[in-house]
Q: What sequence folds into this?
């Protein structure tokens, strides 16, 4: 494989994440600085290596899981937790202490960005692995991941981002809300992977996992509206208090 072919595979692997990122960035009425979006996306790529290391460690400790992970589901659960955790760490490292993190919806935006960076790294690795089966096979896998695994990472991060956003209003419950967000994102991620592999019929597994994504995509759209509405109400209330006190 020459440099040009490798570059094409990298671009193809990045494309789904770039598409979904541009889609969800439109949800932010006050666009975030481009350099922070880029840094968060890049950190999502970097932490994917940590997730791979922890997943490999799990398989070393439980070698039978490498052959039939769907038999117990423990690998899927571990992988889902690790991936959601490292994506949160990407946001924690880059954003949570940054002054640009100045409104609740930012939590969802940056979590989605980190998730899509993670998905980009995953997608690129898959493209390099499946290209040996031919361009048509690789394109088929790419299309499935475009609407499947890549969107999964965005939506699971959005769920966790929502609970991080809610903690903006309940600082004394911040840790509890983040833990709840981790649990919800992990279970959603786990359910998606389980649906894809647990059924004898590939079609049935695809149907269940796609249905789950559609439901979650609708829910995330609602959560975006709810968090913006709550923030606007808070700002209005604070402005009213300032006027009354003056």
A:
């Amino acid at each position: 494989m020459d440099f040009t072919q490798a570059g094409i595979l990298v671009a193809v692997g990045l494309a789904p994440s770039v598409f979904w990122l541009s889609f969800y960035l439109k949800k932010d009425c006050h666009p975030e600085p481009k350099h922070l979006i880029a840094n968060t996306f890049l950190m999502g790529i970097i932490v994917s290596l940590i997730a791979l290391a922890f997943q490999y460690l799990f398989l070393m400790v439980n070698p039978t899981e490498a052959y039939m992970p769907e038999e117990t589901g423990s690998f899927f659960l571990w992988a889902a937790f690790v991936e959601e955790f490292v994506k949160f760490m990407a946001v924690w490292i880059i954003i949570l202490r940054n002054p640009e993190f100045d409104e609740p919806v930012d939590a969802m935006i940056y979590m989605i960005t980190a998730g899509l960076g993670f998905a980009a790294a995953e997608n690129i690795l898959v493209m390099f692995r499946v290209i040996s089966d031919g361009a048509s096979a690789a394109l088929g896998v790419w299309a499935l991941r475009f609407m499947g695994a890549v969107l999964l990472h965005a939506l699971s991060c959005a769920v966790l981002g929502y609970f991080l956003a809610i903690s903006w209003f309940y600082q004394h419950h911040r840790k509890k809300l983040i833990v709840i967000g981790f649990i919800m994102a992990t279970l959603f991620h786990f359910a998606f992977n389980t649906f894809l592999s647990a059924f004898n019929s590939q079609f049935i597994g695809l149907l269940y996992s796609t249905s789950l994504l559609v439901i979650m995509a609708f829910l995330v759209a609602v959560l975006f509206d709810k968090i913006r509405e709550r923030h606007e109400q808070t700002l209005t209330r604070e402005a009213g208090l300032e006027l009354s006190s003056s």
